[in-house]
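User: Teach me something about this protein's shape.
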Amino acid sequence: MRKSPQDIRPERRALKIFAFDPMVARAGDHRVTIDVPYSKMQWRPKGFRDDRIEVIDYDGANNTYYTAIQLDDAQIAMQDGVEPAEADPQFHQQMVYAVAARVLENFDRALGRRVRFWGNERLRLFPHAFEGRNAFFDPGTNSVLFGYFRADEDDAGANLPGQLVFTCLSHDIVAHEVTHAVLDRLHRHFREPTNPHVPALHEAFADIVAMLQRFTFPEVVRRVMSDTRGDLLRRSPLLEIGAQFGAAVGLGEALRTVGQAPDPTLIARTREPHRLGRVLVAAVYEGFVRAFERRTKDLIAIATGGSGRLPEGDLHPDLVARLASEGAKTAQLVLTMVIRATDYLPPVDPTFSDFLRAMVTADYELHRADEIRLRASMIEAFRIHGIRPEAVGSLSVESLLLDPRDPADSPNELLAKCVGELLHLGMRDMKRSTMAEKEEKRFLRPAPPKVESSADFIKQQHVELVREEDDKQGDIDEPDEDWADIGKQLGLWAKTEGTRAKLGLDEKRPVQITGFHPVHRIAAGGELLVEMVAHLVQAGAPDDELGGLAFSAGATIVAGIDGRLRYVISKPFSKERRARVSEWVRAFERDRNPGFRELRPGDTLREAFSSRAMDGRRWR
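Assistant: First, the predicted structure itself:
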């Protein structure tokens, strides 16, 4: 909203994208225009950036830059960006920026704060990073690298054999990789695969966000609702992830399909992260469909005279529009529920059970009434897919809620001070996109290691590009003294006598503050609640008996502005949990198969489940 007649800055930026992969959108049916928050761009021929995203279009395979699009150019802005085109590098840049900006906005909206990358770094996107069948997030440079490749000559599906296929043109892949980046920022210890659910959760979470974000595009949902007659379980492009790329590599189908028949025994029979992750995706989608059907039950009753059986033929356009609207609203609710769950997960060693209880608690904190019974729908969907919550007495919503702290607990003055100061920093960062742009300081990263393959050489080129930019920012350890000061205060609070025991941690081990964030939330009564979410970890050293994994403990706290703890979600040290990690490591070594054929002897479990290796295995 304009603050004065003189304030003529736009609030939103409209940009055209492919809502589906290009082979699906070839007829123009699924090319959509989305709007993202407006941020003033800094442009140079080699790339452009706003306050959180930087697009650098360097082609690693051809050692060349493509001229960056100027999104602030009046002629481009008046047309909502350039037209979607498979062969236009500037549209590729527009595509990755628009989808990434929408992902960040969805996280901002759900979490009640502006996602801040470590050290105020920008997330860097390379649309043509390398030639290869992969796209992955590189935490070392806070970059997403998108590959391109030629379609299979013998089995290219709907693609032209040998045509260039660009991973940066898939909404699903862009949203998936950007979500990896954000989740890594929120929970960096989720890189440590201490149980099979950890890498599976990373993969499934990224797929869920990509799928639900696409469900929030009304024109896309409207078309699918018409084609499927409102049946969201019927196969449609909405349920396919990476359609073009699965066809181009000879799979004959999309990389992954969301819907699958419930099989409660599957979760116990698989450890492979992608197959295991599909169980979680299917459970969330099943819960979404159940909530949507409950939400639209009255519409169907009105349209069918109470019979519930739709007539043959095309549905009335008004009914299609209403179903699409309710579908998009339900998708936004579930997306918010899923993203907010990250604030209620333990900072180490999460499981699907942890995720379910975090989802239920996050939604309860936001929507106490739950008119469409979303929480109950999710619990039932998880049950029929074999995901059973741990340490609960029943499958009721009340039983799955995380235990809140006793409100009679005494407030802590130091904790209250941290929350109060964090509130001011959060408000400052929320204004960042509308404030005058200032040059931000960055970390100076260490020199990259020597390379031993062409793929590593391509990656090092991008590391050097990032260093080239960072060298201009200054060599310092912490770019924001205010955030660093709050981290120190939290560290002091964690060291006070009795605090670690209260958090379920070891009193004798040091505690690391691995993240802390302000949260602004509207309570059920309408009042504004301000809280702090912080992650405290007691990190162990790499252990040879655990395949090089570090056995760690940690706790997530949710604290109010009065200094009272509202929730403590902990994963303490225990012999039972260590035994489960050990068993998982032994099973991995025992079952190592051709799915891990790219690994060299001596590679660790951590390397096997790195972002690059995980995303690379999607294509096989």
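Now, about its shape. Residues 434-454, 469-478 have pLDDT under 50 and may be disordered. The longest strand covers residues 512-522. If you'd like, I can walk through any region in more detail.
User: That's plenty for now, thanks!
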